[in-house]
Amino acid sequence: MKEDRKFDTQELWRRDLEHCIHPWTDFSTFKEEGSLIMAESDGAYVVDSDGRRYLDGIGGLWCINIGYGREEMAEAIAEQIRQIPYFSTFTHLITPPAATLAAKLADLAPGPLNHVFFGTGGSMANETAVRVIHFYFNRLGKKNKKQIIARTDGYHGSTYLTMSMTGVAFDHIGFDIIKDSIHHIPAPNVYRRPDGMTVEEFCDQKVADLENKILELGPENVACFIAEPIMGAGGVIVPPPGYHRRTKEVCKKYGVLYISDEVVTAFGRLGEMFASESVFDMTPDVIVCAKGITSGYVPLGATLFSDEIYDVISVPQAKGALFTHGFTYSGHAVSCAAGLKNIEILEREDICGHVREVGPYFEEQLATLLDLPIVGDVRGKDFMMCVENVANKETKELLPAEAKIGHRIAQHAQNRGLMVRPLAHLNILSPPLILSKEQIDFIVETLRESITATMDDLVREGLWK
Ligand SMILES: Cc1ncc(COP(=O)(O)O)c(C=O)c1O
Prior knowledge:
Elements: H1 9-19, H2 27-33, E1 38-42, E2 45-48, E3 53-56, H3 59-62, H4 71-83, H5 96-108, E4 113-119, H6 122-139, E5 147-151, H7 160-165, E6 182-185, H8 199-217, E7 222-227, H9 243-253, E8 257-261, H10 275-278, E9 286-289, E10 301-306, H11 307-313, H12 333-348, H13 351-367, E11 375-381, E12 384-389, H14 405-415, E13 418-419, E14 421-423, E15 426-429, H15 437-460
Parallel strand pairs: 3-13, 5-6, 5-7, 7-8, 8-9
Antiparallel strand pairs: 1-2, 2-3, 4-10, 9-10, 11-12, 12-15, 14-15
Pyridoxal-5'-phosphate (PLP) binds near residues 122 and 232.
């Protein structure tokens, strides 16, 4: 870390407080507390503007896959800026990194997913998936096939459409959403399945939920089903074995396209470049990715479509007519150069192999927290993990919202040099994929201390037991 750089924390804090509108923020506390200013980074660590160092258990926001401070990334980005920072990809124009990255993604993606549309993030990539699927069905003359099925607790982004597909009820408070064309079916949350039901029976039920919804709406009206391989922001919900393969079969049976939202899971988080086929044995019609595609160094998102979809959408609907979808920064040269270098690093260092080796250790060690009285569930896979805190392990009852349990634990962890993400009663862990076993031990020990300190607080304040 550079010793000579100094930040005026007070002044930065004031500028932020007075002028930034933060995403996903409770303004009542923000206006009192302001922000923690992250100023530097290195490997798996971030350093705040006062020089305090933290192990980043959040991975930026599920995205710093190769870790911070990679000189090669800085070089690739700078070199692209020197060559040509930007040129349009509209109509018949492209830059070398955009063409090369599209080909690379087609090579890495499963089966027939050979056609890539670039945007700048996950929301835009999901928006593109739906817009293009609707266009596809229009081209086939199936103009009623527009309904979208998503899942309760799914997260797909923050644009109007993608927030409407998002199924986290809390996220909809106070905002309008599109209701007439988007339908939610229950999440395959194994931890909260009905008492006495086996995991297999639960899976049958969740697959039937999809089939019943398609039949209720009429298959001729349903365009697509959107699902994350493992639900992220909704609480790291790992589906029961076979769920994705079977829901894909249901989609196929009724001519419904399957969008796999791999914004979090792609590029190594589950030990594979793409998880849909390699981890979940299912080839979707569309894959959406972002975040880890550049390890968060610069913004980029991509939507990958099957040959079948491309063959239909690439026939002009009228002589000289255009495919009128695109953004100024679609295929941005600097972002694509960063994506290429990021994938080169992931492959050269076999970071997926590292995740496959160390991921099970992370799962195993984190599961040791289950002996704590408020830890109801520890779940996830590899570098996508979550601790669910409850008031009562038997009944799985939650603590009152005012206990702010996830937040308290995160605050204790932060005081001990670890960043973890609070999400209501949950704590989410999505660290850089380069963590060593020692760093994993630090996370688990620090979380244990933080949860224990939180339990003491709750007892002292009369909020628990
Ligand atoms: C699964 C999933 N899809 C989509 C998004 C939206 O991506 P972005 O915030 O880049 O628009 C996210 C963001 O966390 C996500 O987790």
